[in-house]
From TrEMBL:
BP-aspect Gene Ontology terms: malate transport; monoatomic ion transmembrane transport
Subcellular location: Membrane
Coiled coil residues, start to end: none
Membrane topology field: Multi-pass membrane protein
Similarity annotation: Belongs to the aromatic acid exporter (TC 2.A.85) family.
Protein name according to UniProt: Aluminum-activated malate transporter
Pfam families assigned to the protein according to its UniProt record, in alphabetical order: ALMT (PF11744)
GO cellular component: membrane
Record's keyword annotation contains Ion transport: yes
This protein's UniProt keywords: Ion channel, Ion transport, Membrane, Transmembrane, Transmembrane helix, Transport
Region (Disordered): 420-441
Transmembrane portions of the chain: 57-74, 80-100, 107-128, 134-153, 160-180, 192-214
Length: 470
């Protein structure tokens, strides 16, 4: 016991006092405040919408607090006004879709649960004061159990989980508290009214004051993910074969795509609740974004496997690597260009047309690679085991091309469902422009000092368009 106390790292009172003085010194406090201020500033600069959201919540709470502060309103509602403040606290979310989801769920759940609570109270009164507690207990047991079980149903859990939770809470409060309260209908009416006031305040401020749309965030997130994959693939070929040395940040940017599933599903769920806004119509096909997200993550997983070969590559490329270098670089760059075109078409919300050209170029590069591989294996007799990593990396590139083709098909389907605009036809614009004739000098070959008269005449039918003399 004595040895244990001797070995414990306890501080003596003078040492502890000196340590506390060091922590509480003005320089230490100033340094801590400075670091905290820098962190807060970085968070605000990273997304300024966070600042506006904080101000919007503060505004909503302030407005709803008037229910308590203004005596005429308080006389009509009383202590039930606290439910309006609680509603703002739990309903107001960062995006419009999330706020609408919680607000609508809370409003309808409160209305339904309040009506059932009043009905349960009236139904229990039919059996007399002796049997009434048993009837109410049975109804609470049955409805709460059924509501809790419904939260396990995927379709309900996805969109209405919060509503079911509020239904259970409100029904229990009304049914149980109504047993001791005479004015049960007035109690339900006051709570429903204040909850509606709080919910409407949240929804109006969320939509009208610097709105943050979940659908718009989902759309931009998809575009950014495609651009990250495109940047990796465009630079992979040159990096693998050490053709160029430059910024290598693109080699790790794709990793955020691997963990994007939860964010995309949450944004798509909230976007379903939103009204039409900006370029997005009401009932925009948000489910198609989830399909695109699945294919994008599959592509990112292939890229994750492909990036491992960047660290495992030989210092000196083999002869086999040099032979297949050109088709491999072309496959990688054309795949990246296709993804970049798809990202650009999504961003501008136009039909993806030029991406198919790059995908066809990828397929031609695969055919060239296959031909080169067969010829070199027959003529040069390469050892497969020595070049197995090169063959594996090439095989992953081929799989990535298939993923990009699936992404292209999914975006094409999205463009049809969302009625994307058709891109302007450059050939038709050029056809409508008049041809401009340029003036030039013609000098005979082999004539140095002699000066000759050369006349160039351009005519159309009987009309002379241009005549030049030298």
């Amino acid at each position: 016991m004595a040895l244990e106390n001797a070995s414990s790292p306890s501080l003596s009172p003078p040492t502890l006092f000196a340590h506390l003085i060091t922590i509480a010194s003005p320089s230490t406090i100033k340094h801590a405040i400075s670091n905290t201020a820098i962190k807060i500033k970085n968070i605000a600069l990273d997304d300024p919408r966070r600042v506006t959201h904080s101000l919007k919540v503060a505004l909503a709470i302030t407005l709803v607090s008037m229910v308590y502060y203004l005596q005429p309103i308080y006389n009509g509602i009383g202590d039930a006004g606290m439910w309006a403040i609680l509603t703002v606290v739990v309903v107001f979310e960062y995006t419009v879709g999330a706020t609408l989801s919680k607000g609508m769920n809370r409003g309808f759940a409160t209305l339904l649960a309040g009506a059932l609570g009043v009905g349960a109270e009236a139904f229990g009164s039919l059996f007399g004061p002796t049997i009434k507690p048993i009837v109410l207990g049975f109804l609470v047991f049955f409805l709460v159990g059924a509501g809790t079980f419904s939260r396990f149903i995927p379709s309900i859990k996805k969109k209405y989980d919060y509503g079911v939770l509020i239904f259970i809470l409100t029904f229990s409060l009304v049914a149980v508290s109504g047993y001791r309260v005479d004015k049960i209908i007035q109690l339900a009416h006051e709570r429903l009214s204040t909850i509606i006031v709080g919910g409407l305040t949240c929804i109006i401020i969320s939509i009208c004051v610097f709105p943050v749309w979940a659908g718009e965030d989902l759309h931009k997130n998809m575009v950014k993910n495609l651009e990250k994959l495109a940047s990796f693939l465009e630079g992979f070929g040159n990096e693998y074969y050490r053709v160029s040395d430059g910024d290598k940040s693109f080699l790790t940017a794709y990793r955020s795509v691997l963990d994007s599933k939860a964010t995309e599903e949450s944004l798509a769920n909230f976007a379903w609740w939103e009204i039409g806004h900006g370029k997005f119509r009401f009932r925009h096909p948000w489910k198609q974004y989830l399909k695109i997200g699945v294919y994008t993550r599959q592509c990112a997983y292939h890229i994750e496997a492909l990036s491992g070969y960047l660290h495992a590559k030989d210092e000196i490329p083999s002869e086999f690597q040099k032979i297949i270098q050109e088709p491999c670089i072309k496959m990688s760059s054309e795949t990246g260009k296709a993804l970049k075109e798809l990202a650009n078409s999504m961003n501008l919300m136009v039909h993806p047309l030029s991406s198919s050209i790059h995908i066809e170029n990828c397929k031609k590069a695969v055919d060239d690679l296959n031909t080169t591989y067969k010829v070199s294996m027959v003529e040069d007799q390469w050892d497969i085991l020595e070049n197995i990593s090169v063959i594996a990396a090439t095989s992953i590139l081929v799989d990535i091309i298939k993923c990009v083709e699936q992404i292209s098909e999914a975006i094409e389907e999205l463009s049809k469902q969302a009625h994307f605009k058709k891109p302007k036809d450059k050939t038709s614009n050029e056809a409508g422009k008049p041809h401009i004739l340029h003036r030039g000098a013609v000098k005979p070959v082999g004539v140095e000092n002699e000066q000759e008269l050369v006349t160039v005449t351009v005519s159309s039918g009987d009309e002379v368009l241009h005549e030049a003399r030298t």
